């Protein structure tokens, strides 16, 4: 089985170009003096379909392949890539990347140990998700989404539905002679609806996905659930009132609100910022940065999840890395370069958008473990506050530690009860101390639905988040209404 | 220089041949019409930090994007691999997709009589023949200027030089084909400051960008500006929740125009997903607001004689005396709305918001007491209702003078009201992007903090 992954990848990436291990030796001979050098071969097939006005309006298919050549000397990285996989292109990319090193000592590649190395623990099937359904079946998914959404409420005016799938073949060869391969499926579906009632309009979207085939969407009424959820959310927002402005107690629902963790602490614990000392968390391992009972992990090993990888983009197996344990900062997320410079080991968080980008430490699935409180009890404990259950996204300044995330479904809590929905608002806080204000942790850990995208330094990668219901005593809410 | 020109001419010929081949293939595989874009370019990106070259990256990009029509059915495909086999696969894929999409009466190329015929040189192509060593030296001296500016600059995210030049081709089966060479260079620096004895750090940056490398801002000035901006932010405080006027610096004021252009985009109009629905001839700004598009400015980033569909661009007014003149749309949205394309398929071409004449200092005086914003973070902007809420940092101003830096605040309002409540547009225009505006002063916002 594992052999067949290797053969499939080799067939896809090496055979058309006539590449083999002795040709790789010749390429690496240009990368003399590297502390680390690697070649990242990738081929990607992408397909998407879009429905609007109840018709299948467009579809797109794309082919992308290439190879990135990286050479690291000390803290310095040289990089070049080619969108042709040929021996000549590899050679000229290697020569360009080697421009980082002026003093060339000889460093030869050891024996290639590809065959043993690719004994990876595969977290997803390797079948092509794009080929598992016919085009008629794929567009039928969108037709169903349209029908379910329009059927859910007479107020639905517009439905926009998308599906997209990716099939990637990856091979990473490094100067230690390791060859690692992976075949990665990834699909997602998004449904956006616009509702109109009494002259007021609102829109909302939902979706889901992960590392499997499009058939995921045909299982257990999934599309109906997405469609009904999008319509419910839009109708809730039709009735929303102004959000109170200022610092207040905030209860976050389970699942997607975990974007809080991604922004507030996740980015700040990426190895590159900490190696450079530019993060608000730099040099703080062992310090208390969250309330007791708060444990947060980054886990790339969850089967079939959008943020998971069998191996990262440097060939390291992914891990479940504890970032914060019972309130204490435990560790950073590392790629090879930053781990080495900090005297640590890669945690399997070296990721890159494509062969044309350099890897850096990135999150996979970041979530907080469950506590012991009943979510009802948490809400009942709040006199006046905000209950935020859906979020649109967030951002962080890792140096000052200030982060934001924006609600897409939130309600007032009045006298221990969830009451009126409020308009979308941005919440702002300080990463290193927001989790010290966590006063209750629910027993209802959930992960998100599988549509998350994280952007860093111009590179986007798929990620996941999750958390149980959380109570935070004091977060600034960007509303318009002065609090009484 | 001569060899460069020969190389350019050769690449242009290659792209034209490729384009012709792709359009022919599309017809062969059953397309009634097709449109495409092809780009090819090279670049160098150098990032230095301290004495070290953090990254030395060579970029070489190419790609083909194709849309085909079979009657009223559409299919799209793209590829970065321009080999014969990949091109054939790509065209087949687009044609195959069109067999499964449905008839859309609004689909198709823009009208043939709208195609641009006068395509003059806009002087957008000035490749920079800089070696890696030279680029490294420039980045190092930029960062050194920032580090030496103030002893409170304690760390750095580094300085970078990037340069890119290439060709882009646009073509369709009306017989329209055009190739435009262009270049873009930039220099940027980002440094970190800390007050002695304080735990908190602040970071800020500055950058300069131009199509012509000689017109980049002085290397030392870029570094010093980055350092100055960082040092100014030290000891930032949170303030209490209150109503206030807000002065947006030119860098962040651009986003206000972005919210407006998003709301009058053809797609938002025909989907009825905008808070400015059916707004042609409606007054949404004060009398003094004039917004116009100037596609033919020499050397500017947003310049072009045609849009993605080949439609000729022209100077036009978008807002006159606060009144919306027309939307921003390509031919698809225009047909949905029963209107004519405004040559904005792919975006706008140099938008300018005219100043009301005040300098930055005069605007501070006019603000008197309030929040001067230099950074926005995160975004909660509802396109259907105009509800607006964002994270912000900047300075607290009293009696027309900056008092102290502020952070960890949010600002909120509704864009419909915010547009009406604009009281001034400064003459301190930021020319670094496709949208040109000075500082914008808006009254009646809610600030949330402590």
How is this fold's topology laid out?
The complex is a heterodimer of chains A (484) and B (450).
Chain A: H1 2-13, H2 21-28, E1 36-52, E2 55-73, E3 76-82, H3 87-97, H4 114-117, H5 135-152, E4 156-174, E5 179-197, E6 200-210, H6 222-238, E7 246-252, H7 259-266, H8 271-275, E8 296-299, E9 320-325, E10 328-329, H9 336-341, E11 350-351, E12 360-361, E13 365-368, H10 375-380, E14 384-396, E15 402-414, E16 417-422, E17 426-430, H11 431-434, E18 438-441, E19 446-447, E20 453-456, E21 459-462, E22 464-467, E23 470-477
Parallel strand pairs in A: 7-14, 13-22
Antiparallel strand pairs in A: 1-2, 1-4, 2-3, 4-5, 5-6, 7-23, 8-9, 8-13, 9-10, 11-12, 14-15, 15-16, 15-17, 17-23, 18-23, 19-22, 20-21
Helix pairs in contact in A: 2-3, 5-6
Chain B: H1 2-28, E1 33-49, E2 52-70, E3 73-79, H2 84-98, H3 132-149, E4 153-172, E5 177-193, E6 202-210, H4 219-232, E7 242-248, H5 250-263, H6 266-270, E8 291-293, E9 316-320, E10 323-324, H7 331-337, E11 351-353, H8 360-367, E12 370-381, E13 387-398, E14 401-414, H9 415-420, E15 422-425, E16 435-436, E17 440-448
Helix pairs in contact in B: 3-4
Descriptive account of the structure:
- The complex is a heterodimer of chains A (484) and B (450).
- With 484 residues, chain A is of the alpha+beta class.
- Chain A has helices at 2-13, 21-28, 87-97, 114-117, 135-152, 222-238, 259-266, 271-275, 336-341, 375-380, 431-434; strands at 36-52, 55-73, 76-82, 156-174, 179-197, 200-210, 246-252, 296-299, 320-325, 328-329, 350-351, 360-361, 365-368, 384-396, 402-414, 417-422, 426-430, 438-441, 446-447, 453-456, 459-462, 464-467, 470-477.
- Chain A has a 6-stranded antiparallel sheet with strand order 3-2-1-4-5-6. In chain A, strands 10-9-8-13-22-19 form a 6-stranded mixed sheet, covered by helices on one side.
- The radius of gyration of chain A is 24 Å and the shape is globular.
- Chain B is an alpha+beta fold and 450 residues long.
- Chain B folds into 2 domains: 5-232, PmbA/TldD superfamily (PmbA/TldD fold, 2-Layer Sandwich); 236-450, no CATH class.
- Chain B has 9 helices and 17 strands.
- In chain B, β12 (370-381) and β13 form a beta hairpin.
């Amino acid at each position: 089985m594992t052999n067949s992954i290797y053969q499939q990848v080799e067939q896809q990436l090496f055979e058309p170009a006539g590449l083999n291990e002795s040709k790789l030796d010749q390429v690496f001979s240009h990368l003399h003096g590297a502390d680390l050098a690697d070649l990242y071969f990738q081929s990607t097939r992408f397909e998407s379909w879009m429905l609007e006005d109840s018709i299948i309006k467009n579809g797109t298919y794309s082919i992308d392949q290439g190879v990135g050549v990286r050479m690291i000397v000390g803290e310095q990285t040289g990089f070049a890539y080619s969108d042709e996989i040929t021996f000549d292109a590899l050679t000229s990319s290697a020569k360009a990347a080697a421009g980082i090193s002026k003093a060339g000592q000889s460093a030869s590649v050891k024996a290639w140990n590809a065959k043993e190395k690719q004994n990876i623990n595969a977290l997803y099937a390797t079948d092509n998700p794009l080929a598992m359904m016919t085009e008629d079946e794929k567009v039928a998914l969108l037709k169903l989404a349209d029908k379910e959404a329009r059927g859910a409420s007479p107020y639905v005016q517009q439905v926009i539905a998308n599906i997209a799938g990716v099939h990637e073949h990856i091979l990473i060869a490094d100067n230690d002679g390791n060859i690692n391969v992976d075949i990665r499926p990834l699909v997602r579906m998004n449904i956006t609806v616009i509702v109109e009632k009494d002259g007021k309009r609102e829109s909302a979207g939902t979706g889901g996905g992960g590392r499997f085939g499009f058939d995921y969407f045909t299982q257990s009424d999934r599309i109906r659930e997405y469609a009904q959820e999008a319509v419910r959310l839009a109708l809730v927002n039709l009735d929303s009132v102004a959000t109170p402005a200022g610092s207040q107690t905030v209860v976050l629902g389970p699942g997607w609100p975990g974007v809080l963790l991604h922004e507030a602490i996740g980015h700040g614990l990426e190895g590159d910022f900490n190696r450079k000392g530019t993060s608000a968390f730099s040099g703080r391992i062992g310090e208390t940065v969250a309330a007791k009972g708060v444990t947060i992990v980054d886990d790339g090993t969850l089967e079939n999840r959008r943020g998971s990888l069998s191996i990262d983009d440097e060939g390291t197996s992914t891990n479940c890395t504890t970032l914060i344990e019972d309130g204490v900062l435990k560790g950073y997320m590392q790629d090879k370069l930053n781990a080495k410079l900090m005297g640590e080991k890669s945690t399997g968080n070296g990721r890159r958008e494509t062969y044309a980008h350099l890897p850096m430490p990135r999150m996979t699935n970041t979530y907080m473990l469950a506590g012991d409180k009943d979510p009802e009890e948490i809400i009942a404990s709040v006199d006046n506050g905000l209950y935020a259950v859906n979020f649109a996204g967030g951002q962080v300044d890792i140096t000052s530690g200030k982060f934001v995330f924006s609600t897409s479904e939130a309600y007032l809590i009045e006298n221990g009860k969830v009451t009126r929905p409020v308009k979308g608002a941005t919440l702002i806080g300080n990463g290193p101390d927001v989790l010290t204000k966590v006063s209750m942790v629910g027993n209802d850990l959930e992960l998100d639905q599988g549509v998350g995208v994280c952007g860093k330094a111009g590179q986007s990668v798929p990620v996941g988040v999750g958390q149980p219901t959380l109570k935070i005593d004091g977060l600034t809410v960007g509303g318009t209404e002065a609090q009484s | 220089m001569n060899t460069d020109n020969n190389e350019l001419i050769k690449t242009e010929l290659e792209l034209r041949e490729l384009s012709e081949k792709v359009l022919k293939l599309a017809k062969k595989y059953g397309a009634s019409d097709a449109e495409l874009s092809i780009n090819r370019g090279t670049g160098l990106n150098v990032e230095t930090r301290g004495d070290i070259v953090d990254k030395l990256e060579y970029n070489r990009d190419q790609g083909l994007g194709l849309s085909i029509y079979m009657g009223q059915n559409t299919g799209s495909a793209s590829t970065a691999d321009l080999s014969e086999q990949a091109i054939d696969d790509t065209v087949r894929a687009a044609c195959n997709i069109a067999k499964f999409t449905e008839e859309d009466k609004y689909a198709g190329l823009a009208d043939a009589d709208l195609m641009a015929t006068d395509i003059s040189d806009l002087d957008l192509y000035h490749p920079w023949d800089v070696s890696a060593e030279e680029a490294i030296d420039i980045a190092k001296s930029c960062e050194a200027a920032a580090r030496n500016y103030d002893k409170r600059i304690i760390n750095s995210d580094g300085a970078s030089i990037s340069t890119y030049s290439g060709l882009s081709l646009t073509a369709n089966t009306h017989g329209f084909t055009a190739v435009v060479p262009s270049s873009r260079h930039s220099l940027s620096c980002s440094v970190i400051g800390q007050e002695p004895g304080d735990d908190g750090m602040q970071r800020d940056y500055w950058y300069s960008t131009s199509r012509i490398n000689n017109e980049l801002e002085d290397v030392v000035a870029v570094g010093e500006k980055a350092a100055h901006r960082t040092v100014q932010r030290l000891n930032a405080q949170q303030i209490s929740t209150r109503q206030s006027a807000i002065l947006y610096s030119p860098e962040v004021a651009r986003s206000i125009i972005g919210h407006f252009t998003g709301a009058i985009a053809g797609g938002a109009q025909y989907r009825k997903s905008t808070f400015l629905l059916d707004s042609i001839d409606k007054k949404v700004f004060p009398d003094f607001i004039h917004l116009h598009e100037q596609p033919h400015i020499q050397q500017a980033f947003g310049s072009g004689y045609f849009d993605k569909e080949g439609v000729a661009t022209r100077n036009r007014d978008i807002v006159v005396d606060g009144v919306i003149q027309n939307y921003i749309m390509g031919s698809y949205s225009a047909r949905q709305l029963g209107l004519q394309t405004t040559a904005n398929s792919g975006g706008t071409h140099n938008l300018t918001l005219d100043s009301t004449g005040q300098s930055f200092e005069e605007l501070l005086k006019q603000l008197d007491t309030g929040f001067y914003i230099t950074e926005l973070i995160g975004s909660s902007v509802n396109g259907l209702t105009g509800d607006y809420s964002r994270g912000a940092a900047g300075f607290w101003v009293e009696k027309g003078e900056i008092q102290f830096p502020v952070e960890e605040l949010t600002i909120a309002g509704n864009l419909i009201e915010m547009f009406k409540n604009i009281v001034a547009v400064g003459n301190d225009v930021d020319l670094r992007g496709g949208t040109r505006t000075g500082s914008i002063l808006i009254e009646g916002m809610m600030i949330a903090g402590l």
